[in-house]
Specification:
Elements lengths: L5 E2 L9 H11 L17 H18 L5 E7 L4 H10 L5 E6 L2 H10 L4 E7 L23 E4 L1 E2 L4 E2 L11 E4 L16 E5 L9 E7 L16 H6 L9 H17 L1 H21 L4 E2 L11 E6 L4 H11 L2 E2 L10 E4 L6 H18 L1
Parallel strand pairs: 1-13, 3-4, 3-5, 5-8, 8-9
Antiparallel strand pairs: 2-10, 6-7, 9-10, 11-12, 12-14
Helix pairs in contact: 1-6, 2-6, 3-4, 6-7, 7-9
This protein binds pyridoxal-5'-phosphate.
């Protein structure tokens, strides 16, 4: 067994070993300054350099064009369920939502008191087993924006490609699949992501927003909820999450060193294949998501007999395969395979699943 466990938790999630080691080295004595990394002042030269470098590295990794700003904000992904309508739509205007499961549902519910939420497409009728076919979407050309959840972390449903929404800004919650594949950022008006899945410590959010959208904020929006204010202050309107931004920067460096998002996409495909191959061949495990919409990041599955779940989880834990319990809303098992999960972790889980089925199938 490795010294560090394979943590399959959905978030806060596994971090790369190299980043954990780096944090440990600088934890007590940051860059030889005699203070801890957690004491890093946001007005220090160190932080100015760290912040600028984190932004530049993220811009390089995702090819973020000059038309788009990058923000590091507090509060995770959830505030953006409200901030998106407050900043991009006037009261009474309508916005299109693609309903693909739990998180798009949360986004719609929060937006519904701020904007006229139109469901342009929904997979509810098939119990969220897919991303609705693009051909069936009923988009409104007058919508303030189109909102999608790029990867439904709980349901295990991921967009295989992103729609062209023409002049209507495309807004995506990429909390659980950002940095896992190359992206044409120019096609998006706004991307937001909580950090705790693929980037770093919980509490931090990344926002990428197209410059011309900053002028659409409705009047009366508080400063901390106003993207334009955050752009104006370069994410320092109030004290930024300095430690979390430092760690996010270490993760960006790590992803660059490992070969960038194209390499992350190759690894993600290989890890997901390990697990889906076992599911496809199994009579014990089931995953009901249509193959074309299956998430590379979160693989939920059920055991034919729920009473075996506890035994499955106990056996996994003894092997250092941790946090495989499914979300409380769905039950079952869920394996999250974010960037920091090594291919060997997915392989060990696949082997364990096969062996468990041999004994209990
Ligand atoms: C985890 C998650 C969220 C919520 O993130 P918080 O940081 O808890 O606000 C939102 N959307 C998606 C897709 C997620 O995976």
């Amino acid at each position: 067994m490795r010294a560090r466990a394979y943590n399959f938790g959905a978030g806060p999630a596994m971090m790369p070993d190299a980043v954990i080691e780096r944090i440990a080295r600088e934890w007590q004595n940051f860059r030889g300054e005699g203070y801890s990394a957690m004491e890093l002042g946001h007005r220090s030269e160190h932080f100015a350099e760290i912040h600028a470098r984190a932004k530049a590295d993220l811009r390089e990794l995702l090819g973020v064009p000059a038309s788009h700003h990058i923000l590091f904000l507090h509060g995770g992904a959830t505030p953006h369920f409200a901030m998106v309508p407050l900043n991009l739509a006037q009261p009474g205007q309508s916005a299109d939502y693609i309903h693909t499961g739990y998180w798009s549902d949360k986004a719609m519910a929060e937006a519904s008191s701020l904007v006229n939420v139109r469901i342009a497409a929904s997979a509810a009728a098939s119990e969220f087993d897919r991303v609705p076919e693009r051909a069936g979407w009923q988009l409104d050309p007058a919508a303030a924006y189109v909102h999608i959840c790029a990867n439904e972390t709980i349901g295990g449903v991921e967009f295989a490609d992103y729609p062209d929404t023409g002049d209507v800004p495309l807004v995506a919650d990429m909390s659980s699949n950002i940095l896992s594949q190359p992206l044409d950022v120019a096609r998006f008006g706004l991307i937001y992501a909580g950090a705790q899945k693929n980037i770093g410590p919980a509490g931090l959010a990344i926002v990428i927003i197209r410059d011309d959208l900053l002028g659409r904020v409705r009047s009366g929006v508080p400063s901390v909820m106003n993207y334009a204010r955050h752009v104006e202050w370069d994410s320092m309107y109030n004290t930024p999450a300095a430690f979390a931004i430092w760690v996010a920067g270490l993760v960006f460096e790590y992803v660059k060193k490992e070969g960038g998002v194209a390499e992350m996409a190759r690894r993600s495909a290989a890890k997901a294949r390990c697990i889906y191959d076992v599911l496809n061949a199994s009579r014990l495990y089931t995953n009901r998501i249509q193959p074309a919409s299956r998430s590379r990041m979160n693989v939920p599955f059920f055991l034919r007999e729920p009473r075996l779940e506890t035994r499955f989880l106990d056996g996994a834990r003894r092997r250092g395969l941790l946090n495989l319990k499914g979300h409380r809303a769905t039950g079952g098992i869920r394996a999250s395979l974010y960037n920091a999960m090594p291919l060997d972790g997915a392989r060990e889980l696949a082997e364990y699943m096969t062996e468990f089925e041999r004994r209990h199938g």
